[in-house]
Design brief:
- Helix content is about 40%, strand content about 15%.
- It is built from 19 helices and 15 strands.
- It has helices at about 1-20, 25-30, 35-55, 65-75, 140-155, 170, 195-205, 235-240, 260-275, 290-300, 325-330, 335-345, 365-370, 380-385, 410-415, 420-440, 470, 480, 485-495, and strands spanning about 95-100, 115, 125, 130, 160, 175-180, 210-215, 225-230, 250, 280-285, 310, 355-360, 375-380, 455-460, 465.
- The strands form four sheets. It has an eight-stranded parallel sheet. It has a three-stranded antiparallel sheet with strand order 1-14-15.
Length: about 500
């Protein structure tokens, strides 16, 4: 029997070697039959080998092991503490430090909330400091969405639907929703892919929909659309998105509802009216400062503003994106936040608009830094995925997520136990906000309103540390209208409320 098995094995190897020699696709296998397969096997295992055996606790990407561990620990309700001091090189250029006070404050027991709703909003919403960022049903499994929304309901924070439409998985648990509308207008689109005002009004009237957001661009791939292959458009996804089953769906890179800053501002006002006065805003990955200033000018001239703006950093992104875009297009979150915050302050609009920050927010210190850079609240996507079991396998786009989070494979998705994972989402959010409040108390402030850019320091070289107040320009209210500073003057003059192009 053993001889037979050995004969079969050797025969199979010989057949594979012959195939390698005659095939024309892989040069390596033509020159190194059989042995070449070892190289492909090692290449396939490389990410896991790197993550689990080679990288240090603090230098992995996109999220290092320390960050993943603190999310896992908080989600499970265990201690998120480390002994023996930091492993970071605090003298490395670019290192950032929050400044503790010699007179710390008691830690608040009531997490503050942010009122979303400008002068044109009749149904404002009180937003938590940390919420679930945009992730669509379709990119995430039904069980993953159920766990996220159930956790949001339990913890009293908001859940952004992503641009894939309102599904039963978003609605069934009863958590607060931010309904995101992208260029495909999924869930409120006509047969030819345009915006359908009637459908939008009907779905925006859901009691769970607390805010509506128009997605202009997203962090990892600003300025490009998306393609959902027909093979993935099953009956359930087709119904949620309002598209034909089995047919490839293309999300264009641009919106049909506007082509100028003025048209954008007018459309946002129309959305708010259709939504019955609920808060309306837009999300973008910041690029041209001049273009954003053009939107500010349009707001001033039309005398209407969105209720919130979500700034997505170029380092963000749960979905797949071309490497060139992920690595090279768009501003990181910090620069994007400061651009939007200063533009709104300089035009006298900041008091009317709240700013959300989305992009690698995972810990309490991340949250505090974003508040210091100009945000009013934050959203987290990948950290929330960690809370429900994501292991950063980076196979989100393959439908082969090993833990059932980013897949439509029912066999894999069953791994997400909704009851258990929803508890983890709620615990993680609560612990992270509590951590942020502890840091603020250590800095001598009672809450976000006491924070300022002078409290965040950055090492610019081995011998020099500067605060954000010194490193960056911070405009005063109405400064662009009265006397634009030199660094902003040319962009302000060139900004046109009737065109986006530079």
């Amino acid at each position: 029997m053993l001889k037979i098995l050995l004969f079969v094995l050797l025969g199979a190897l010989a057949a594979l070697a012959v195939h390698d020699l005659v095939q024309r696709r892989h040069s390596l296998l033509r020159n190194y039959p059989l042995l070449g397969h070892l190289r492909f096997a090692l290449e396939a295992l490389r990410p896991e080998i790197q993550q689990y055996f080679i990288e240090r606790n603090f230098d992995g990407r996109p999220f290092d092991r320390d960050t993943r561990s603190i999310v896992y620990q908080r989600a499970k309700g265990t201690d998120a503490e480390e002994p023996f001091g930091t492993e970071l090189d605090l003298y490395r250029a670019g290192s950032e430090y929050l400044t503790p006070s010699m007179a710390p404050r008691p830690v608040r027991s009531d997490p503050p909330r942010v009122r979303i709703g400008g002068p044109d909003c009749t149904r404002p919403y009180d937003m938590a400091l940390l919420n679930v960022s945009a992730m669509s049903f379709g990119s995430l499994s039904g069980n993953a969405v159920l766990a996220l929304n159930t956790g949001a309901r339990m913890g009293g924070f908001a859940h952004d639907t992503g641009e894939g439409g309102l599904s039963e998985y978003h609605l069934r648990p009863g958590g607060d929703l931010i309904w995101e509308i992208g260029t495909g207008y999924f869930g409120c689109r006509t047969d030819d892919g345009d915006f359908d005002a009637r459908q939008f009004a009907e779905k925006a009237a859901h009691e769970q929909v607390k805010c509506v957001s128009l997605k202009i661009s997203q962090g990892a791939k600003p300025g490009i659309g998306g393609v959902l292959p027909g093979a993935k458009v099953n009956a359930e996804i087709a119904e949620v998105r309002g598209v034909p089953q089995g047919r490839t769906v293309i999300s264009p890179p641009y919106h049909r509802v506007y082509s100028t800053p003025r048209e954008l501002v007018r459309f946002l006002a129309r959305m708010r009216e259709l939504a019955g006065g609920k808060p309306v805003g837009f999300k973008l990955c910041v690029g041209s400062r001049r273009e954003f200033l053009a939107v500010c000018k349009a707001m001033l001239e039309e005398d209407t503003t969105p209720d919130f703006i979500v700034v997505d950093g170029a380092e963000g992104g749960t979905g797949a994106a071309p490497l060139e875009f992920a690595d090279n297009v768009g501003l990181p979150l910090g620069e994007g936040l400061m651009t939007v915050h200063n533009a709104l302050v300089g035009t006298g609009l900041r008091d009317r608009i709240r700013i959300g920050a989305s992009g690698k927010v995972a810990t309490g210190s991340d949250l505090v830094k974003r508040l210091l850079q100009g945000a009013d609240y934050t959203n987290a996507a990948r950290a929330m995925m960690f809370a429900i079991g994501c292991v950063q396998a980076q196979r989100c786009h393959t439908n082969a997520c090993p833990v059932g989070v980013a897949t439509q494979d029912a066999r894999r998705a069953r791994a997400v136990d909704v009851d258990d994972k929803s508890m983890r989402v709620a615990r993680y959010q609560e612990a992270t906000v509590k951590s942020a409040l502890q840091i603020m108390a250590a800095m001598g402030v009672d809450g976000p309103s006491g924070l300022g850019p002078h409290q965040l320091l950055q090492r610019v070289d081995p011998h020099t540390v500067r605060s954000y107040a010194e490193l960056h320009d911070w405009l005063t209210p109405g400064q662009l209208l009265a006397s634009p500073p030199d660094g902003w003057a040319s962009d302000w003059r060139a900004a046109d409320p009737d065109r986006f192009a530079d």
